[in-house]
């Protein structure tokens, strides 16, 4: 099935198979035969006139508003979505296995990682399983061009986004400079964006579906919503971990004009807290260890058990507490 078939054409979000998913991304079908996610169909119901839902594709046949239901489930697509989710889950499991040393991968799993990483030119398939595992591990721990991320970390982020195009580095503080202007110049209007922060043993970040849009007025702050996911790559869990995703309606981006601090806020992750250097960061994920933080968290937490990514010791500034990242990158896909 075509990749587009798994995405709602109205909101561009991937469908999910879980009926209890708060984001309501189950595929539902209208009378005309067109499928959209339950969330978008609910919106169409809300805006319906004369008790009829109009199809976004401007079909002649309308659908009666049924207050109890957001359309009828598309069972065929639902089954395909569930199969794809299971397959993606399996691929993530294999990548995580690869991250902790490729030595336990089976021949089938080696083939799967080779396919995901487009490594068929680089792996000697005649060399025997243990040699292939070694080659694979060396390749997967090599870096994305210009980035501090390994190709394995990049592949994991791409499974989480999800996209089938590889990551590409846009901006890196230690290479391109620490100012807000440096970051804006390098990132431009690219989207989606992946922000990655490194400090000591910790590496984590956030994915945002929208571009950085600075306000016209340098004294203002531009604030808007987009889809966001937070993840940890190292230091907080035994293996790279996608933390709970944020509902697209609640993910916030705040971009300050040149005269404001903090310079940039991507949901819980804030950059440029001291007003000088974008790598003066703060992170408050608002997740409680043992409650809504994923299991296996072994990073720091404050007195109320709120998880503190990147460790806990922070400096004071007029705009709040911050730590200085060793490096900060912004990447995009494709
Ligand atoms: Zn939708
Ligand atoms: Zn239609």
In short:
Helix content is 23%, strand content 23%. The chain has 7 helices and 19 strands.
Structural commentary:
There is one protein chain. This protein is α+β, with helices and mostly antiparallel strands. It is 23% helix and 23% strand. It is built from seven helices and 19 strands. It has helices at residues 38-46, 75-99, 107-116, 129-140, 151-160, 173-176, 180-187; strands at 27-29, 35-37, 52-53, 63-64, 72-73, 167-172, 193-199, 202-208, 221-225, 228-234, 241-246, 252-256, 264-266, 269-271, 280-283, 300-301, 307-308, 323-324, 327-333. The strands form five sheets. Strands 6-19-7-8-10-11 form a six-stranded antiparallel sheet. A hairpin with a 6-residue loop joins strand 10 (228-234) and strand 11 (241-246). Helix 2 (75-99) packs antiparallel against helix 5 (151-160) and helix 3 runs parallel beside helix 4 (129-140). The model has no long low-confidence stretch (mean pLDDT 88). Bound molecules: zinc ion (ZN) (2 copies). One zinc ion (ZN) is lined by residues 30, 32, 34, 55, 57, 59.
């Amino acid at each position: 099935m075509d990749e587009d078939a798994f995405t709602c054409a109205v909101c561009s979000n991937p469908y999910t198979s879980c009926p209890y998913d708060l984001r309501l991304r189950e595929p539902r079908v209208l009378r005309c035969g067109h499928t959209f996610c339950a969330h978008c169909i609910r919106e169409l119901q809300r805006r319906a006139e004369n008790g009829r839902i109009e199809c976004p594709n401007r079909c002649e046949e309308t659908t009666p508003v049924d207050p109890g239901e957001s359309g009828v489930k598309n069972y065929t697509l639902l089954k395909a979505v569930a199969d794809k989710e299971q397959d993606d889950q399996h691929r993530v499991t294999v990548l995580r296995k690869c991250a902790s040393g490729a030595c336990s991968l089976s021949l089938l799993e080696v083939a799967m990682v080779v396919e995901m990483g487009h490594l068929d030119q680089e792996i000697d398939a005649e060399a025997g399983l243990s040699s292939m595992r070694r080659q694979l591990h060396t390749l997967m721990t090599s870096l994305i061009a210009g980035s501090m991320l390994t190709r394995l970390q990049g592949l994991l982020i791409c499974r989480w986004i999800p996209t089938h195009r590889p990551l590409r580095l846009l901006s890196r503080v230690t290479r391109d400079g620490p100012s807000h202007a440096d970051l804006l110049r390098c990132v431009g209007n690219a989207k989606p964006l992946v922000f990655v922060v490194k400090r000591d043993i910790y590496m984590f970040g956030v994915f945002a579906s929208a571009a950085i849009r600075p306000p016209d007025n340098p004294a203002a702050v531009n604030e808007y919503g987009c889809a966001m996911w937070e993840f940890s790559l190292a230091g907080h869990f035994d293996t790279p971990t996608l933390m709970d995703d944020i509902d697209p309606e609640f993910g916030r981006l705040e971009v300050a004009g040149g005269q404001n601090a903090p310079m940039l806020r991507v949901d819980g992750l804030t950059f440029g807290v001291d007003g000088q250097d974008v790598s003066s960061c703060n992170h408050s994920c608002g997740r409680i260890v043992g409650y809504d933080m994923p299991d296996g968290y072994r990073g720091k937490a404050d007195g109320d058990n709120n998880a503190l990514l990147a460790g806990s010791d922070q400096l004071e500034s007029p705009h709040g507490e911050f730590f200085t990242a060793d490096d900060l990158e912004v990447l995009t896909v494709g």
